[in-house]
Amino acid sequence: MMLIVHHLHSFILETLITPSELSSAIQFLTETGQRSTDHGQEFVILSGILGISALIDSIHNAKPPGATEGAVIGPFFSEDTRDVGSNGDSLGSIASEGKGFYMYVHGRVTDTQGNPIAGAIIDTWETDGTGLYDNQYEEAERDGPECRGRLRSDEEGKYAFRGVVPVSYPIYVDGTAGKLLERLGRHPFRPAHLHLQVEAPGYETLITQLYFKDDVYVTSDVIFDVKSSLVSDLKPITDPSLSAKRGFVDPNKVHMELERDLVLATPGEGEAARKKFQEELTRLATKGIGA
Ligand SMILES: [Fe+2]
């Protein structure tokens, strides 16, 4: 409490906000608190666009060198998913035909020493080609899990699945957070991303998102959740025989390939990394955050 009051008073002393500005601020927060819709809680969206959620996630999910970095889970994870096999050469698909531009995702699940992790459970979810998650559709328009799936890595730690190239989408902007973005001249978009959750016994669960290099929003994510280590290059594959082997319904269509290894930390490695990171942050905070 002492620290909150200290920082709030510093803010007031630095800005000399007026009584009418205080009223506006109270009004803004009141409206934010009163707004809770099917889209969720407005304070959650506000926390996102101010970078608070991403910052807290970064601090408490810091990873050791070599491990795949994390990202926030976001509001669209669902247990209602499709099973897409348990094999590194799996031809399973998380998306139905016609849901977007073909994408093939593959790689290995390993530990930080590069040893394969077999039987890791990978949950993945993404938008379809229109920028919507299946659970954003009305019940009547929704035909089962779509653009999401669960699979397992094989004996060599390999995983593979077909999906679609996800697209960038705006967060909900019909509340106070949207008004604030508009006043700040900020766009409301998240860059396109593939969500992943990877679980394996003896390792920390990895929750992350993979982004794409050529995305126009990759350097200005509205919720500040992109880490450069999570940005990949999508490679166009024009060889119909490879497309056929990978199980695409129309092998004459070009598909994009995303190759990405997923590296898990043990609880011990994770704990050491978080301790080190938090000590560094404390050191910076006592020197002033700009130091
Ligand atoms: Fe998302």
Automatic annotation (TrEMBL):
Sorted alphabetically, the keyword list is: Dioxygenase, Iron, Metal-binding, Oxidoreductase
Domain Intradiol ring-cleavage dioxygenases as annotated: residue spans: 74-240
Keyword Chloroplast attributed: no
> Which InterPro entries does the record cross-reference, listed alphabetically?
Catechol_dOase_N, Intradiol_dOase_C, Intradiol_dOase_core, Intradiol_RC_Dioxygenase
Domain Catechol dioxygenase N-terminal residue range list: 4-68
Give GO MF terms, alphabetically.
catechol 1,2-dioxygenase activity; ferric iron binding
- Write down the Pfam families for this protein, in alphabetical order: Dioxygenase_C, Dioxygenase_N
Q: Which GO terms describe its biological process?
A: catechol-containing compound metabolic process
Cofactor requirement: Fe(3+)
SUPFAM superfamilies per the record?
Aromatic compound dioxygenase
Family as reported in the entry's similarity comment: Belongs to the intradiol ring-cleavage dioxygenase family.
Question: What's the protein here called?
Answer: Uncharacterized protein
